[in-house]
Specification:
It is built from 9 helices and 15 strands. The chain is α/β, with parallel strands linked by helices and 312 residues long. The chain folds into 2 domains: 157 residues, Quinone Oxidoreductase, Chain A, domain 1 (Alpha-Beta Complex), CATH 3.90.180; 128 residues, Alpha-Beta Complex (Quinone Oxidoreductase, Chain A, domain 1), CATH 3.90.180.10. Strands 3, 4, 5, 6, 7, 14 and 15 form a 7-stranded mixed sheet that branches. Strands 10-9-8-11-12-13 form a 6-stranded parallel sheet, with helices on both faces. Strands 1-2 form a two-stranded antiparallel sheet. The protein is globular. The termini are close together.
Length: 312
């Protein structure tokens, strides 16, 4: 099969395009023909070796953890899906080896869910990682509740844009912080208030918008926005971060760092929301498999409005 892969960690222009052995589905696995693969900043970090101490790699390694595709073969005892079923998944495995930037991937059937009917293949491929990250951060780790005030830092990115929609689905109040050029986009997604992260009086604007202090901060940005807003959090408030595992915080803050995990039932919930028109995903740009290295370089900028997706 044709695949994008790397033989060692390093610069992103080390990504090669070539032929690798097509995987065979083992017991409990299905072989999926990849139609589209979402591209995330973590994919670039993986190729650079930045996660090597957390997730071991085995070369040649194929990057990519997001997939939408078609079931083409079932391994022994794999019976949840039939040939031709359209599926999507967050495909992170215990080691970095068989990723989604390839024509085929073999996955445990427990990872897979049928794709949302109202999303395109490209949109479905862009949803798993960002959707599960937002879901697990807001509802599992943070237990966000109706009528709470949520401050999202980095709200126009892939995770933040899904978080806006999930929070509004349960009727939370959303204060979205990102660059001014993305404010209309965030309002379209449902944000109640939008604030420019470059504002000198950022904390004051947050407390004014909240009518006091906020219940929950979801930190999915980099830079100093958290340092500038952490004191807007109520006593015993909740802070969830996906970018900083050990921020300097008051003792009363309920803090948790989230690194997203595969979860098929949660993917089913996201698919249901998409089919109810409660969740949408914007695809900023598509690439061919031959352009995988460029896609990884581009995604490191972290400034795109919507997802980047490789199509096969």
């Amino acid at each position: 099969m044709k695949a994008a892969y790397f033989d060692e960690y390093g610069e992103l222009d080390n990504i090669k395009i070539g032929e690798l052995d097509r995987p065979e589905p083992s017991e409990g696995e299905v072989l999926v023909k990849v139609k589209a693969a979402g591209v995330n900043p973590v994919d670039a970090a993986v190729a650079r070796g930045m996660l090597d101490q957390v997730i071991p790699g085995k070369f040649p390694a194929i990057p990519g953890w997001d997939i939408a595709g078609e079931v083409v073969e079932n391994g022994h005892s794999a019976r949840r899906f039939k040939e031709g079923d359209q599926v999507y998944a967050y495909a992170r495995r215990p080691e970095i080896k068989h990723g989604t930037f390839a024509e085929y991937i073999a996955l445990p059937e427990s990872y897979l869910v049928k794709t949302p009917e109202k999303l395109s293949v490209e949109e479905s491929a862009g949803l798993p990682l960002v959707g599960l990250t937002a879901y697990q951060s807001l509802f599992v780790a943070g237990e966000l509740k109706e009528d709470q005030t949520l401050l999202i830092l980095g709200a126009s990115g892939g995770v933040g844009s899904v978080a806006i929609q999930l929070a509004k689905h349960i009727n939370a109040k959303v204060i979205a912080v990102a660059s001014k050029k993305n404010h209309d986009y965030m309002k379209e997604l449902g944000a109640d208030v939008t604030i420019d992260y470059n504002s000198e009086d950022l904390a004051e604007k947050v407390t004014t918008a909240a009518g006091g202090k906020v219940d929950f901060i979801f930190h999915c940005s980099r830079g100093d926005s958290l340092d500038n807003t952490k004191n807007t959090l109520k006593e015993n408030g909740t802070l969830i971060s996906i970018t900083n595992s050990s921020p300097d915080l008051r003792d009363d803050i309920q803090f948790q760092y989230v690194f997203v995990e595969p979860n098929a039932p949660q993917l089913e919930q996201l698919a249901k929301l998409a089919d109810m028109d409660e969740l949408k995903l914007s695809v900023f740009k598509t690439y061919t498999l031959d352009e995988a290295a460029q896609a990884l370089q581009d995604v490191e900028s972290l400034h795109a409005q919507g997802k980047r997706v490789i199509t096969m």
